[in-house]
């Protein structure tokens, strides 16, 4: 038995802690906050419950497999699949319903323009090929180096190698398939899942809409906090020593670590840090991915799908502004209405709304004392246009709030994966110090609930191998 410290109780840290404990190690988890889950938490006000971080779940089998490795499948909360995955809207009144049912999605696409239905089918087919060629090798093992990854791709054949080498930008891929702005922007939006611009991010991000269509989009009953709570229960079963309100620091001493809070430290054989690794890896001068502005609202019950996106009039111009450190005059709105699928999320007659707008990371060029109130009014005006009445503000988060929560420069996603090889330059999980490992959305394989849990699994694998070799 070895002693392992996990610093940070986000989903990646919880997963790593559980797997290391299941492997027989003595694990202590330090979490500086008063609750587990990191960004994956919920808040409740007067019976209205809203997620405060991620609001949808994909790849449910990856999440269930994480719980299976912890012998905790009985703790998994119910996943509610959304047949209408997202309702997309444009300022000219055009709308598109993205559905898992391919025929229904193609019929909706055809209504946008002649041939767009067939184009959507072809786009999904190419996205599936990208996933098989580049995505599957990326997700099947920790990213330890380019050569290792290329060898995994090569095992899928020369066509896979060519496919990966020929990738351009996500927007270029969408423009090759679609003739209308509507589906180009629909496809491009998936770059924002990593805080990137579709005009500068790799076409590899097309694997995200493929995965959503192939495996579905889900809501976790009770909100993402239910998933975090379930992982916390699993850790309790496995004997993990969970310490809340403990802002821990680590030091290397000889062939071991000391970890603790204040002036009190304990010896450990390995450390997993569930936090953005850019600073620890000496990469603080790199550009950061997007941040966000979030408004949590309570309103009279309204007829609105679970997920709605309303695009800005000038979508490219919005990203030009964001990566110049400022907000565009017109912004794209994302609205999550969980009561549409889960009646436990709001009392009868009420709706909770999670409203988010992309925002630049903090660099001093955006004055949030001015932009915050402006965005608040824009968001309130937007939800009223969607039919919301008797609207009450329950909470608000700006990039400064995300920074106080540990996000570098307020960037929700940390590393910015622009460029053809952007996704493969993501910070590695192995720290510069032997025995130090990272998990979470800032490292491989990236953001999103299943990938963050996968990062915890990979971190536990690497730490386990290190401990075994040290034995």
Brief account:
By secondary structure, the chain is an alpha/beta fold.
Number of beta strands? 19
CATH topology group of the largest domain? FAD/NAD(P)-binding domain
> What's the domain count?
3
Total number of helices = 14
Using only C-alpha atoms, the radius of gyration works out to 22 Å
Q: Can you tell me the CATH superfamily of the largest domain?
A: FAD/NAD(P)-binding domain
CATH architecture of the largest domain: 3-Layer(bba) Sandwich
Estimate percent helicity: 25-40%
Give start-end ranges of low-pLDDT stretches.
Answer: none
CATH class division of the largest domain? Alpha Beta
Q: Would you give an account of this structure?
A:
There is one protein chain. With 471 residues, this protein is α/β, with parallel strands linked by helices. It folds into three domains: 3-43 and 223-284 and 416-470, 3-Layer(bba) Sandwich (FAD/NAD(P)-binding domain); 83-216, no CATH class; 287-410, no CATH class. It is built from 14 helices and 19 strands. The strands form five sheets. Strands 7-6-15-16-17-14-18 form a seven-stranded mixed sheet, with helices on both faces. It has a five-stranded parallel sheet with strand order 9-2-1-13-19, with helices on one face. Strand 10 (249-253) and strand 11 form a beta hairpin. Helix 3 packs across helix 4 and helix 7 packs antiparallel against helix 8. It is globular. The mean pLDDT is 94.
């Amino acid at each position: 038995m070895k002693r392992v410290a996990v610093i940070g109780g986000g989903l990646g840290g919880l997963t790593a802690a559980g797997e290391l404990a299941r492997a027989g190690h003595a694990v202590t988890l330090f979490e500086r906050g008063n609750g587990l889950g990191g960004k994956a938490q919920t808040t409740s006000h007067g019976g209205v419950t809203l997620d405060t971080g991620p609001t949808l779940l994909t790849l449910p089998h990856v999440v269930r497999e994480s719980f299976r490795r912890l012998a905790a499948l009985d703790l998994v909360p119910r996943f509610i699949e959304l047949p209408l995955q997202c309702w997309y809207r444009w300022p000219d009144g055009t709308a598109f319903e993205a559905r898992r049912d391919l025929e229904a999605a193609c019929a909706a696409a055809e209504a946008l323009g002649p041939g767009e239905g067939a184009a959507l089918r072809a786009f999904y087919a190419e996205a599936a090929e990208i996933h098989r060629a580049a995505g599957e090798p990326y997700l099947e093992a920790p990213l330890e180096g380019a050569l290792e990854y290329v060898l995994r791709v090569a095992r899928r054949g020369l066509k896979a190698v060519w496919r990966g080498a020929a990738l351009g930008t996500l927007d270029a891929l969408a423009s090759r398939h679609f003739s209308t702005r509507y589906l180009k922007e629909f496809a491009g939006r998936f770059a924002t899942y990593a805080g990137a611009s579709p005009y500068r991010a790799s076409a590899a991000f097309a694997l995200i809409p493929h995965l959503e269509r192939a495996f579905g989009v889900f809501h976790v009953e009770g909100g993402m906090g239910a998933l975090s709570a379930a992982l916390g229960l699993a850790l309790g079963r496995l004997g993990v020593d969970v310490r809340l309100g403990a802002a821990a620091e680590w030091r290397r001493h000889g062939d071991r670590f000391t970890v603790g809070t204040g002036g009190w430290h304990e010896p450990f054989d390995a450390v997993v840090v569930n936090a953005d690794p850019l600073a620890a890896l000496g990469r603080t001068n790199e550009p950061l991915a997007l941040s966000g502005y979030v408004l949590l609202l309570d309103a009279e019950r309204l007829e609105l799908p679970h997920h709605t996106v309303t695009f800005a009039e000038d979508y490219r111009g919005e990203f030009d502004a964001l990566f110049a450190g400022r907000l565009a005059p017109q912004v794209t709105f994302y609205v999550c209405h969980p009561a549409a699928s889960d009646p436990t999320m709001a009392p009868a007659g009420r709706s909770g709304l999670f409203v988010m707008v992309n925002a630049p990371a903090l660099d001093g060029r955006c004055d949030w004392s001015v932009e915050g109130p402006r965005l608040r009014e824009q968001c309130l005006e937007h939800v009223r246009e969607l039919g919301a009445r008797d609207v009450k503000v329950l909470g608000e988060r700006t990039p400064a709030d995300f920074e106080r929560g540990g996000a570098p420069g307020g960037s929700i996603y940390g590393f910015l994966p622009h460029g053809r090889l952007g996704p493969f330059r993501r910070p590695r999980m192995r720290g510069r110090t032997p025995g130090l490992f990272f998990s979470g959305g800032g490292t491989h394989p990236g953001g999103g609930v299943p990938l963050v849990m996968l990062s915890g699994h990979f971190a536990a694998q690497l730490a386990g191998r290190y401990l075994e070799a040290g034995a």
